[in-house]
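Exercise 7 asks you to align residues with tokens for two separate proteins.
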Amino acid sequence: MKRVEHIGIAVSDLEAAEALYTRLLQVAPYKHEEVAGEQVNTAFFRVDDTKIELLQSTDPEGVIARFIAKRGAGIHHIAFEVKDIVSEMERLRNEGFHLLSEAPKIGADNKLVCFVHPKDTQGVLIELCQERDSLI
């Protein structure tokens, strides 16, 4: 794993959360994106090398909606950039970690992603992400 790529925060009201984080960080989001496969709308903020992803569910039964219903709004995941997501997934499986998908999925911000089950990581959902452009 190369570095923390971003921190994902589950929110119930993306517009209100954007206003709050714009005031807090003193920057506007640099990107908005719907990720239909994950049933979320996202907004990304960048401060130097740090990125924050706000996630709002587009479906009342979606993962983010269920997360908020169970735990409330707040930190949802920590994403780590990896050089080769397929190799990293294989390494983690060999180490006994449970992954939430068999293969990488298309995620937000031009990434391929895979999640590590939080039961294996002290309750923290870990996302692996690789820039899709780096596959060329």
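Second protein for Exercise 7:
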Amino acid sequence: MRTWFWSVVFLALAVGLALVLREHGGNVLIVAQPWRIELSITFAVLLLLAVFFLLYVVIRLLAWLTSSPERFRLWRGVRAQKRDHDWLETGWVNLLEGRYTQAERDFSKVLTQSRSPNRKVLAALAAARASHRLGEFVRRDDALQIARENAGSEPRLKEAAATVAAEMYLDQNRPNEALRLLQPLQDASSRYFHATRLLLRAHQQLHNHDRVYDLTRLLLRRGVIDKAEALSYLETAVAARLHKGGLAGFKTIWGDLKSDERVLPEIALAGAAIQESAGNIDEASKILEAAINVKFEPRLLSAYSQCPPEQVARRLSKAEVWLKSKPDDSALLAMLGNLCLTGQLWGQGERYLLRSMKIRSDVRIHALLGNLYDRLGRRADAMKHWRLASGVAGVLPVLAANRALPAADTRGDPTLIAFANMPETDLAGEGQEVIPQAASAADYVVEHEGKPAAEVLAPVSGGFGSKSAEPDFDEYFDSAPIPGVDLSQTSDRPSDRSKNR
């Protein structure tokens, strides 16, 4: 539009100038001794315009020639900037796609060839992140050092370098170093929410539960943290604070909590444990009941089933109401069975536990059934469920009742005396017991009334020639067959040729 406007203006000026010059037929006289130049006014005007245009072109050409070095530097700078941007763009795409090796290579090109400190800081931080993902922590620390050096005194670049380094230190479970970098940022501006979230992670790893509680509250008030995530932080922190504060600090800590926070499992368990330790069983029951009404957590149900006998009736009536809404909840049925055992309601407890076992085979249910049958005198059933409990727990294998280890093969025992091949007179006298002589019975002593031990421990001869009756334990070995091994193929088992001898 502007081009058309100026074209019309110049055309109008040209037409106007032509009309003016046509009506004036005068001459222009130029006297320059010894010359005398006479021109028509039209030609003089056109000549003047031509000279002006020529001078304008010449001056612009001289200006272009004199500014060539600066323009060349600007051109090179623009080209380098475009090249750096291309490398940064390609590197970030590779980093986001998980091609960390290629991304690190692209960012290294920027670090080695770029002349811009800002772009070097960005490339170094991105390269550090790629090296961190690859587990190359030495290269990562080198890249972070380059970023700090190029950041200089620029506050935003320094904050960026500190934040990236702290986040990677937290991934490595190095909260002390992250805390040292993040604390100045959070002190400088409490609205720096990303640094505050990282501080929350650092204090959680350091188990500073008071700081975790305060920072979570701050982020919740500002609305920069998800409610579910905040509740998970609060659950751990508040439970630890309750255990640490005990009964003395219970009122203060519990009073700061909202209703939806008091029913979190860890908090409810901690609060109920404190009240129960203080003897406030009814208050502990109310805390657990409020939490169970929100969520049937097995830990809450297990804690609710642990109560003195005088509380059994009240808790059974409450649990039976829950059972109407959750008739197939295995943990709830197990809780009812445990309460019945505490109240010595054996038949009802057995029914609840068997119903729970049909839904889910659990080590605790088998253990409770074993205890129940043990109290009822049903030893076989008790042993069966105790074995099943150990099998479910994965501690011991459950062996079949009709299986037994095979008897040891003692034919190859070098310390065994072959009594069958000895005369009867050598075996024992009349009215005397036969004393077995083998490695497993080397210390066997027969009790004789009225005889001192020294007389009983008389040396026995025979079977060893001139050797003592005490066996050499270094030569003893267990000759029991190994399950699953064919001993006929080994040299330890007597061969048929030796039997024929």
